[in-house]
Amino acid sequence: MPLMFLDTVDLHDAFSRAVRLNDLSRRPVAFVVAVLLVITAARADPTSTGTFTAATTPTLRLNEVFASGSVPDFIELYNAGSTAADLSGMSLTDDPLLPRKFVFQNGTTLPAGGYLVVFADANSSAPGVHTGFALDAEGDQVSLYASASAPAPSDSIKFGFQVSNFSVSRTGPSANIWTLTTPTPGAANGNPATTAGPAVLKINEWAGKIVFRLDHDLIELFNPGAQFVALGGLRLTDDPARPTRFVFPSLSFIGPSGFLALYGADFGFGLDGDVDPIILRGENNEGIDQVTMASQPRDFSTGRNPDGSNIITNFAVPTPGMSNQTSLPGNYTALLNSLRITELMYQPAAPSNAGDYEYIELQNIGATMLDLSGVRFTNGLDYTFPSGTLLMPGAFIVVARNRAAFLSRYPTSGGMLAPNAFTGALDNTGETLALTLPSPWYVHILRFRYEPAWFTTASGGGYSLVVPAPATTQAIDWRERTTWRASTSLNGSPGAADAGSPLGASSRIINLSILTPIETSGQDFTMGYVVGGANTSGQKPLVIRAAGPSLGALGVPGTLADPRFELFADTTSTGGNNDWGGSASLANAMAAVGAFAYTSPSSLDAAADVRISTRDNSVKVSANGAGTGLVIAEVYDATPEASVTATTPRLINVSVLKNIGTSLTAGFVIRGGSSQTVLIRAIGPTLVTFGVGNLVSDPQLTLFRGQTAIGSNNNWGGTAPLTAAFNQVGAFTLPAASLDAALLATLEPGDYTVQVTGVGGTTGTALVEVYEVP
User: Fold this and answer.
1) Alpha-carbon distance 417 to 361, whole Å?
2) Is the pLDDT score of 17 beyond 80?
């Protein structure tokens, strides 16, 4: 039986999808499929605050702060006294835990009535005073300390979201009212900017089912008015009972006709793309705007089109911080479709300064030339491709950490080397990387995390991580271990395809798993698998698991406390496992196939690494004792990638026999360098001929890649292609008019799940099968 390969994220995705689909099935159809717009009638005008009153106004004080614009950030000091102020040993910081981030040099003075502009940047070669740190335009703070021993700052200011090319300054007769102003560095502060009330604001774009296109969930606000709007005190929530889940900090603003993109890290709560409201209220809790997400596609955003209107549209490419009517440049579409990271050297081997040999390889997998100008890494390291960087179809380009070191090791790869070097370092403990479209499009081409546990030879052994089949793999799958493998050669192969890449090699099923409950005491279920394939021979190494307790650590509720399994070759019991025991060799075997780690050596999960020589095999999973709860049962192909040949035995058929309950979620993983045709069946009525009782009378199946449905079937209909496929793989025949379900699909390498339900909510036992079709 085919089962899904579940890493931590996939496990949550599959489990959450099943729960949400069950919940949505009880709701009216219009509620499920429509995106609803609700404008909450306000009982009074919503309010916000555009000023902040300073507790003190010292003689030597912070006077103006500029954190967003076309010139460097700056912090302005003003001496309101009648004598010069000695700044020697005083300090500025944006972090209270590091009060001495910038210290004024001895002899620095500020004359009476004078202004000092301190640039908040690291450009020490430019004239003026430079702090070495920048300010965050989405909210930051600045503090002035009188000395190294000062227990508290002599002056400080906190601010929220800033408007480009405007500053916050002290205003008013007592210079104690901070507000939005036109920048006046080195001169008297300007008058406060005119602001309008927040009632005009619109929730303009939103995304709640983000996997890789953005960093986090998205809520974008739009100000359709001609004046600035102060945001201080406004409330943003997805729960009417908790209106203050996020409150905008003081000195937050949005400009005329402006857009403000807020991400999950900003507002601090997650959005549910299946069903969730988004509510914006005034500081007095009066309604401003509200929208409701429903059935949002993965990695899409939804928004008003045109901006601020009542017309709601889904966008395949989000437009955070920009008008929803902004067209994606044609070359950017090509970048999304064809630019891929194909090799990572994150832990090179060298006697010294090993990090200097780090590199990242990219390839154009498309048929047209790519202009990489402005393409940038926005997480994990810092690099932007210079203007005029072109990449021909099929060609590679390599970004190195140290160009001289790289060329000393790979002298023949200089023609593939990108200009300049990246700053930062690839983390040996794993890291999230983001390859992003040119500014202002903060949309990722790829975003994924690599892990050192994926392949031990790449984690300190001097080998790289490579993607053997980039042209046949979806961008979302870069986060999966199964997309990668260790390089064939020590030190990798920058600027060229890895010598061991199985491009054109036949793909195969490498993992099956099922997440399902043991519902009653003494209940069990059987997973079946067939090892073989034409012209193959020898034993097949496998890792087999039944996990319950360790699922709880992943946030899955109601797990089976103590699972066990028994192995069968044909009908002969060949062994099994109750508690895995924490053996180091078994832990290494589980890590090598990409299975999530068990919580401890003493956990009551079950696992075994075995070598199978028989063709027809099965695993019976049950509770050790009378327990009930969720369990995930898994079979992994443990053949090392580098040793796979045409004669290596494969998992050619996988299946599960189980009561489906409200639904049964099974899955499988295909790996290799080409597409693979599979036959998927969900059989109920025909099982009566094999003496199976309590059958589901009318099963239907849906095939997913990620969270996207890519195929389905209810009644198979006796079609000729399916009948031929049954005969080709040796599956038992089905009556042409039976209500069993079957689907024939040609699939690219990746992770797939199959959801089986009974038509009309019926339930009972079903056999779910996945066959490799030669």
Assistant:
1) 9
2) no
